[in-house]
Design goal:
Structural class: mainly alpha
Strand order of the largest sheet: 1-2
Radius of gyration: 23 Å
Order of helices and strands: HHHHHHHHHHHHHHHEHEHHHHHHHH
Largest sheet: 2 strands, antiparallel
Shape: globular
Distance between the termini: 29 Å
Number of strands: 2
Length: 484
């Protein structure tokens, strides 16, 4: 991602650059008012295309060619090819992990271990550990995250709350892991080294996650546990529908091991999907038969059952209605709506980049402030604006990173100030934007609408405020003269 480029054209006025943004935000707000939670089913995608069309009109009036805009859209979509393939494989993995009993086993044992009072805080800790080990918030959500949302639902805890806790922990680990792509990208853009960046980032990140844990603990202590479902009946229903076994945990352990060993994510997910299919045939032959309606398990019926779980909607009926909602998967087909959203977002972001609007907005934010605090505030605002307009966390790191590096030097600030601010505001807030690749991914994988978890992703929206607080109070703001 280090070779991301900032498009340079005849400079737009700030008002010209903001026209597509204002139109997009206005139309999206109206669309959500009309469609509510169904807005992501297709209408928001079309609104993003309308926003792209408005940006294209601005570009045409400023002599930007149609071919140039289309090329940048193509480059943007090309840059998401890996994310799209990962989404498809996550859908496939979720399907085989359902019919094999991997996810039901996680829920089964999780219900016995996790206390409702401390469940949300435990979600943060578990996801933080997995994410530090793998370097990927996406992998964390696709494995333990799905199971934790299921456990939370079985305990009567809001899916939005659980998803917020999962995302908080996953993004803490993503930020602090040396295996993370964004953790490597931010110091590269700012001009510092990886471990200096991680040590400096810990100064804001650790207090933020501590506050997050305190908030989730307080929420847990105030949950009405009298309404928590009888776990004995839930366990009985799961046990009656699946052959539960600790051996099933071999599948997620293998996937996490592969990621930790720096295997390509697609390879790890493919192996996890295939292992899930094999374990389904070994541990859950009755479920595989029921999917196809076959009288007995043969090579053909087994193949058909596993392929159906990988590709299309699959559900496993239990004696408990609440569990029936949990034990369903859309397979690869269930991810197509999220992929559609990402492609449309890349159209808007690509045209905005091609006409120079993104660079102009960042420049306006940079020149709007003169103090050290103003420079930090400008960086945070740029990252947030790019997550909304470019719909991609990498651009929210690369563009401000390139544009602000010299400004930090001119203020006598060490480059790790910039790299930390890029992560505190660019990486973690991407998941709060429904049409951003990260927001679309997490919503699609966890099965929880972005608007449902945004209020509970405390770590993600507290991080920019903490970094601004440090700047305002001049806490741990390293000067260039302090560097050895």
């Amino acid at each position: 991602m280090e070779d991301e480029k900032v498009i340079q054209n005849r400079e737009l006025s700030i008002w010209e650059a903001l026209i597509p943004v204002v139109v997009l935000v206005g139309l999206l707000a109206f669309n959500v008012f009309v469609f509510g939670d169904d807005a992501l089913s297709g209408s928001n995608q079309f609104i993003l295309l309308i926003g792209g069309a408005v940006a294209a009109i601005v570009g045409i009036f400023n002599k930007v060619t149609y071919e140039k805009m289309l090329d940048e859209v193509a480059n943007n979509i090309k840059s998401t090819a890996g994310a799209i393939l990962i989404l498809l494989f996550v859908g496939a993995l979720a399907g085989t992990w359902l019919i094999s009993g991997v996810i039901p086993s996680m829920i089964y044992y999780g219900l016995q271990i996790l206390n409702p009072t401390f469940f949300l805080a435990a979600c943060v800790v578990i996801c933080a550990i997995i994410s530090v080990a793998t370097g990927s918030s996406w992998t964390t959500s696709a494995t333990v995250g799905i199971a934790l949302v299921g456990i939370g639902g079985a305990l009567g805890i809001s899916p939005g709350m659980t998803a917020g806790a999962v995302i908080s922990g996953a993004y803490f680990g993503d930020k602090m892991s040396p295996l993370s792509d964004t953790t490597n990208l931010a110091p590269a853009m700012a001009g510092t080294d990886l471990f200096t960046h991680i040590r400096y980032m810990a100064l804001t990140t650790v207090p933020t996650v501590v506050v997050t844990l305190i908030i989730f603990t307080i929420i847990g202590l105030n949950l009405d546990t009298t309404k928590v479902p009888d776990t004995a009946s839930l366990l009985s229903s799961i046990d009656a529908s699946f052959n539960i076994s600790p051996w099933l945990f071999l599948v997620p352990v293998v996937v996490i091991f592969l990621i930790v060993k720096k295997a390509p994510p697609l390879l790890a997910l493919l192996i996890g999907t295939l292992l899930g299919g094999i374990f389904a045939l070994i541990f859950q032959p009755e479920i595989v038969k029921s999917i196809t309606g076959a009288d007995k398990l043969t090579f053909i019926s087994g193949y058909k059952g596993v392929m159906n779980a990988i590709t299309v909607d699959t559900s496993v009926e239990t004696t408990n209605e609440k569990l029936n909602d949990l034990f369903s998967s859309g397979g690869m087909a269930g991810m197509l709506g999220t992929i559609w959203l990402i492609i449309c977002a890349m159209v808007f972001g690509g045209i905005m980049d091609a006409i120079g609007a993104l660079a102009r907005i960042s420049k306006a934010l940079l020149t709007a402030f003169d103090s050290v605090f103003g420079l930090f505030a400008s960086t945070v605002a740029s990252c947030l604006a790019l997550n909304v307009t470019a719909s991609d966390q990498y651009l929210a790191i690369v563009v401000p990173g390139k544009m602000y590096a010299q400004a930090y030097k001119d203020k006598g600030l060490a480059p790790e100030n910039l790299s930390r601010t890029l992560e505190d505001s660019g990486t973690v807030t991407s998941v709060l934007v429904p049409w951003n690749t990260c927001g679309a991914y997490q919503s699609g994988v966890l099965g929880v609408d972005t608007t449902a978890y945004i209020g509970y992703a405390f770590f993600n929206y507290l991080s920019p405020f903490v970094t601004l607080l440090y700047a305002a109070l001049n806490i741990k703001i390293k000067q260039l003269s302090e560097k050895k």
